[in-house]
Amino acid sequence: MTAILSETIKTKPSARRDEETAARLAVMSAGATEGWSVANREAALERVKSMGLPQPRDEYWRWTRPASLIAPEAPTASVFDPAETPIFDAVDRVKVVFIDGVFSAEESDPLELAGVSIERLVEATSDIHWASELYGKLEARGQSPVERPLAALNTWAATDGLLIRVTGKAEKPISLIYKHASETSDATLHHVIKLEEGAELTLLENGPAAARFNKVMEVDVADEARFHHVRAQGRDHERRAATHIFARLGRESLFKSFTLTANGVMTRNEAVIELLGDDAMAHVAGACMGDGDFHHDDTVFVTHDALNCESRQVFKKVLKNGAQGIFQGKILVKDGAQKTDGYQISQSLLLDGDSTFLAKPELEIYADDVACSHGSTSGAMDEEALFYLRSRGVPMAEAQNLMVIAFIAEALDEIEDEGLRAELLDRLTGWLDRRRG
Amino acid sequence: MLEIKNLHVKLEEEDKQILKGVDLTVEAGKVHAIMGPNGSGKSTLSYVLSGRGGYEVTEGEATLLGEDLLDMDPEERAAAGVFLAFQYPVEIPGVGNMTFLRTAVNAQRKARGEEEISAADFLKLVREKAKTLKIDAEMLKRPVNVGFSGGEKKRNEILQMAMLEPKLCILDETDSGLDVDAMKLVSDGVNALRDEGRGFLVITHYQRLLDHIKPDVVHIMADGRIIKTGGPELALEVEQNGYADLLAEVQ
Ligand SMILES: Nc1ncnc2c1ncn2[C@@H]1O[C@H](COP(=O)(O)OP(=O)(O)O)[C@@H](O)[C@H]1O
Ligand SMILES: [Mg+2]
């Protein structure tokens, strides 16, 4: 089969786009003016200018209104202080705290971990740096065939973030904690993570970060390296977030990412993953629970460009009281990527008639010896199962919670570490119990 | 202990009357069997007693130890002592059998103001009861009824019954789809629960289950009514002659 790869989905020129892009750029500036990153940042600014910021008519923004994410000022978001121990608190980890997008040395652990170098982006101001090969580079690769202007904007303007280079097996996770303190904060963070051959790292993230949060994470996973990512997005009801993960995978490498989202008025999580080495494996999963003023969008693009790779996308959404869930997921299998095993499932559990779930699953395959499957479902809670549980004495609310957890289980199972999985499950159960109590 | 008087039930969504005046009393310590042709309303009766939605009681009453059952939510009925072994046990992907059992046991204890069972005691109890029903540990770990064979599902129902120790056990065609060995296991499980304080309502199509679980009273149900009540010999009569004669007799 000949490779006729889809053309880049170009944004259409529009006066409104130009205006809104200019207005946004006018209140921002380059995140650094010296050192190696300047060139990468300038290139990113050029990308932003040529693409323009997202508009509602853009192919991948039809279901998620970009306005609040590109407005010059962040819409305010009040700070939510749930009376509970912060997530991952019990995990032995290296804690790195950002408050409204600014690194806090005071609250963080020393940035030290055997086999890993951890550096602040803004402190890496030398002219030559390993990260220059990656910073904005994976993001730039990910701009085709679908443009992602908010990520380019981030590369240009990011004011903080970490450069993490992993040479061995990290003995404990690095845990990024994003605290939200100001109702008007607008944070732009950019992390670069490079796993050398055979290296292994678990990265944890949690917290709302800011009233509005733009985050990019570029991850380079070399041959036989393993990267685990577990994230719990902050529960501030009014917070907004646009996040991107760009990952590149080498031979026999592993990439696993799981995101739990509860609350948040607007979330757009994009993952752009390229499997470039044979026998690599990428799993991206997410579970969200939205109640009321909640819009959650998972936009995933997985490219198979090597032999015998496996990818899984598993996304579950529990929605009620008018909450909205979006899934846009694509598997692209390039010519020659034989023996590809691609799987994609997106499902929503609608707890009432007001909530909506929209899904756009896409497969584009140019190799002939592949197994790809995808499915998307949307439905109410299974009444038969509910009755069965209740007939055994389980009260309605508890029965519903069991069903919600059961629904989410397939996504949670994508977390490899049993302790982390148990912790998230515990949290989820607690939130459910309280919500109904 | 169970008193059903003149129970009339129709479908909620449709103008279809299914139970047309059921009268039935089950005493503690007794096993009552209900037999009857397909579609006569046996499952409906069991569902209405356990509180499934979709039905509307238009007349009559049902009480358990003097308490009005029809007014309660399904979970309240369970706490009051009603247990239905389903004709078609429901599969619940994602909910572990053990989690389910423990949640149920503790929920009922809580509803009765009793203390929750400890994890260790629970485990011991389940293992013990599972063993007699030849339910292996693997089955307990799997999601509720998912991937279970017909026989495994039915044994799982009896395990739940044994764990929950209800006052009124309703078995809806628990024998259907069982081979001889499984039938023996299930019957032994039921017989082990026979007790002075417990009543049984065993719904079945065939006499063969009643060879194992000996009934005290047999009722024949047809077209939404109990048309005849007798001793164990009534089941044999049905086995030999079918329902035709009985039906003709009534008309
Ligand atoms: N939910 C339902 N929807 C439609 N018809 C029903 C429903 N439940 C029961 N029925 C009808 O009521 C009658 C009695 O059914 P059922 O109680 O299952 O009988 P049995 O268990 O004796 O075979 C049948 O005609 C059946 O089709
Ligand atoms: Mg039936």
Automatic annotation (TrEMBL), chain A:
One of its GO terms (biological process) is iron-sulfur cluster assembly. Residues 185-407 form the SUF system FeS cluster assembly SufBD core domain. It comes from Pseudooceanicola marinus. This is FeS cluster assembly protein SufD. It comes from the Bacteria. NCBIfam families: sufD. Pfam families: SUFBD_core.
Automatic annotation (TrEMBL), chain B:
Residues 2-248 form the ABC transporter domain. The keyword Nucleotide-binding applies. It comes from the Bacteria. PROSITE patterns: ABC_TRANSPORTER_1, ABC_TRANSPORTER_2. GO terms for molecular function: ATP binding; ATP hydrolysis activity. CDD domains: ABC_FeS_Assembly. InterPro entries: AAA+_ATPase, ABC_transporter-like_ATP-bd, ABC_transporter-like_CS, FeS-cluster_ATPase_SufC, P-loop_NTPase. Keywords: ATP-binding, Nucleotide-binding. Belongs to the ABC transporter superfamily. Ycf16 family. This is Putative ATP-dependent transporter SufC. It comes from Pseudooceanicola marinus.
